[in-house]
Amino acid sequence: MRFEILFIVYFIYGLAFFSMGLILFLEASRTPSLEQKKLLLPLAVFGLLHGIHEWLEIFTLQNEQLHGSLPAWITWFRLIWLALSFIALWFYGWQAFQVARAHISAFTIFGLATLPPYILLILIDVLYSFYQGDITPLQTTGGLVRYLLAVPGAAIASLGLRAGANRAKANSRRPLDTHLNWTALGFALYSATQLAVPKMDTLTANLINAEAFTQITGIPIQALRTFAAIVITWNLFRAIQFLEEERQVQLTAAQQARLEALEQHEIMRRDLLRHIVRAQEEERTRIARELHDEMAQTLTAFTLDLGTLKQMTGTRSKTASILARLQELGKKMSQSMHQMVYDLRPAHLDELGLLPALQFLADKDGPRLGLQIEFKTDGEPRRIDSLVETVLFRVAQESITNIARHAKSKRAVIYISYLAQEVKLEVSDDGVGFDPEEKFIAPRGWGLAGMKERAESVGGRFEVRAEAGRGTIIRVNIPVQQEI
Fold first, then answer.
1. How far apart are CA 174 and CA 187, in angstroms?
2. CB distance 255 to 263 below 8 Å
3. Torsion sign (Cα): 383, 385, 387, 392
4. How far is the C-alpha of 64 from the C-alpha of 59, rounded, in Å?
5. In the chain, what is the straight-line distance between the N-terminal and C-terminal CA atoms, in Å?
6. Distance of alpha carbon 189 from alpha carbon 192, whole angstroms
7. Nearest to residue 414, comparing CAs of 378, 383, 452?
8. Cis bond before residue 443 (omega within 30° of 0)
9. Residue 404 to residue 78: CA distance in whole angstroms
10. 3-state SS assignment for residue 483
């Protein structure tokens, strides 16, 4: 019956610590905090090694039950494996203590102060018995592993966790402090149970040993260690859950802050684009006005003076042909000037609005560019913000220019629809089309990029639908409010 109980106890004992090791190892692999990695990894190593050691104990128990004998090296291998697990625990305890050093309590100081005298007394007791020949080298090594590695290692881990709990409490990280306190209590209990070593002929082992504990309490010391392991594993699991929830909250806050920063950046970009478009149009208007008011009048006067000079010299004069040619050049310059003024800022747009400007664009630019442009409207026409009207006109103008240059089409359609909350513009052709996913080498694609930026500067959506051999559709939707 005792074998079955110990088998179950060792299995649960090993499972608890092995599970703890896996949980901590996974947490250490995903936490971004270097401090947490340094803390969790040694404790994870302890859990994995110690869990495997307790399962090795099951193998030993089975061998004893079958009255078999094991080679001496297996016993020494188990002992070294146990020592390595406790060394990892020592390392964790020291790291935890260093991290939370500012939050140590008087109890922690007392615990650290009692460790040196304890270690000295144990060394004297065990080594004296060994030199007297009362205990074997295997018993000596096993006793020192538990007395000097397990007991102090678990105790220091307990003190480090207690300091960590104080630190969590000071930072208002609850219930993390509660879970760390319970884990500290679990390691304190575990440290105390390691004093109950297998019976051997030393002063300490004669007073406290595993066999005496079983006789007094009726339960094996491993059962108490299993209870401590369950307390430790459960509370560390809850602590990890808290850290994960805390990390998710921080991640959500960081994502929200990043989203707000991106939104603010987008608002600033849109405002900057709006300012650039407005400044560009104002500068175009100024240049168009100066060209119209000064250069156009100068050219007109120049042409009139040439006509007067031609009349004065007569048609048979040697200079008549030159004067006629100069008059023709003057007319062409005047026409080019008018076209330039129109391109810079069409008067129809400011004086009559978007629809007449688009109609004039279709009627005037179509024949000049070799295109038959059909102009369609839908909805109730109305005046809208002048900047929005300018953006829609410029998109239509650039689209018609692109069709004439690249589409290899003779026909285009300009369609504008006035909806309740937005204005929609479409410019389409039945030309060669293109792949909108294609990466264009500058300066190709700048026209589309410019149209997109103009639309976005007034809060609009810009869309290109194209397919090789199927033509192209440029679509802009801009939310608007009716001007009063």
1. 21
2. no
3. negative
4. 9
5. 96
6. 5
7. 378
8. yes
9. 86
10. coil
Q: Which of 16-30, 66-80, 336-350 shows the lowest per-residue confidence on average (mean pLDDT)?
A: 336-350
Rounded to 5 degrees, φ, ψ at 409 are -125, 150
Nearest Cα neighbor of 384 from 243, 281, 478 is 478
The arrangement of strands across the sheet holding 461-466 comes to: 372-379, 411-418, 422-429, 472-479, 461-466
Domain topology for 348-479: Heat Shock Protein 90 (3.30.565)
Q: Give me the DSSP letters along 212-237.
A: HHHHHHSS-HHHHHHHHHHHHHHHHH
Which residues, in sequence order, are CB contacts of 63 under 8 Å at separation 6+?
Answer: 69, 70
∠ CA 393-395-400, nearest 5°, is 95
Residues in the chain, total: 484
DSSP H helical ranges for 145-220 = 151-170, 176-193, 203-207, 210-217
CB neighbours of residue 52 within 10 Å: 15
Question: What is d(CA 241, CA 24) in angstroms, rounded to the nearest whole number?
Answer: 11
Q: How far apart are CA 36 and CA 28, in angstroms?
A: 7
Residue ranges of domains in the chain: 2-260, 348-479
Q: What's the pLDDT tens digit per position in 348-363?
A: 777 788 888 888 888 8
Q: Of the candidates 406, 403, 405, which has an alpha carbon nearest to the alpha carbon of residue 395? A: 403
251-261 tens-digit pLDDT: 888 888 888 88
- Euclidean distance between CA atoms 455 and 461, whole angstroms: 6
Claim: this prediction has a pTM higher than 0.70:
no
Confidence of residue 24 (pLDDT cuts 50, 70, 90): confident
Res. 484 pLDDT band, cuts 50 70 90: very low
Contact 12, 51 (CB under 8 A): no
Q: What is the pLDDT of residues 62-121, one digit of tens each?
A: 776 666 677 778 888 888 999 999 999 888 888 877 776 666 667 667 777 888 888 899
Q: Which two tokens stand for residue 305?
A: 């003076």
> CB burial class (10 A; 0-12, 13-18, 19+) of residue 234?
middle
> How many CB atoms lie under 10 A from the CB of residue 215?
9
Residue 427, beta-bridge partner list: 414, 474
The C-alpha atoms of residue 200 and residue 334 are separated, in whole angstroms, by 118
* Percent of the chain residues topping a pLDDT of 70: 87
* 8-state DSSP, 147: I
CB 291 within 8 A of CB 344: yes
Q: What is the C-alpha separation between 108 and 102, in angstroms, rounded?
A: 12
